[in-house]
Design goal:
Blueprint (H helix, E strand, L loop, with lengths): L7 E12 L10 E21 L5 E7 L2 E5 L2 E5 L4 E4 L4 E5 L6 E10 L2
Antiparallel strand pairs: 1-2, 2-7, 2-8, 3-6, 3-8, 4-5, 4-7
């Protein structure tokens, strides 16, 4: 089902990944990953999605990212970031004129 916020103008590069099962008891089947996400001007990182079972953090390196959640739009520029927990339901966009670049670190199911 589409919510009208399908991804466009987004590129994702995996920077690092660690098998948490080999590192921490009880974390079997999970991995910690770090990605660099670039959202071009006018780009959308969607669709509307949650982070249940996939907690993470985001840090903006360049540009401005608008985070849409709970009926509120919040702009994050360089040096700012946010948490993504089980209560997060959002989508992102770049309303600016330059690419927006973020570092995203999260825990996901191991491939």
């Amino acid at each position: 089902m589409s919510d009208g916020h399908e991804s466009k103008g987004v590129s994702v590069e995996l920077l690092a990944s660690v098998d948490l099962g080999a590192e921490l008891p009880g974390m079997e089947g999970r991995r910690l990953r770090m990605r660099m996400v670039t959202i071009e001007p006018g780009g959308v990182f969607g669709p509307l999605h949650d982070h249940v079972g996939r907690p993470g953090t985001v840090y903006v390196l360049e540009g401005t990212i608008t985070d849409h959640r709970d009926g509120t739009s919040t702009e994050y520029g360089p040096g700012l970031g946010w948490a993504e927990d089980k209560n997060t339901l959002h989508w992102l966009e770049n309303r600016g004129t330059v690419p927006a670049v973020e570092i995203s670190v999260d825990i996901v199911q191991a491939d």
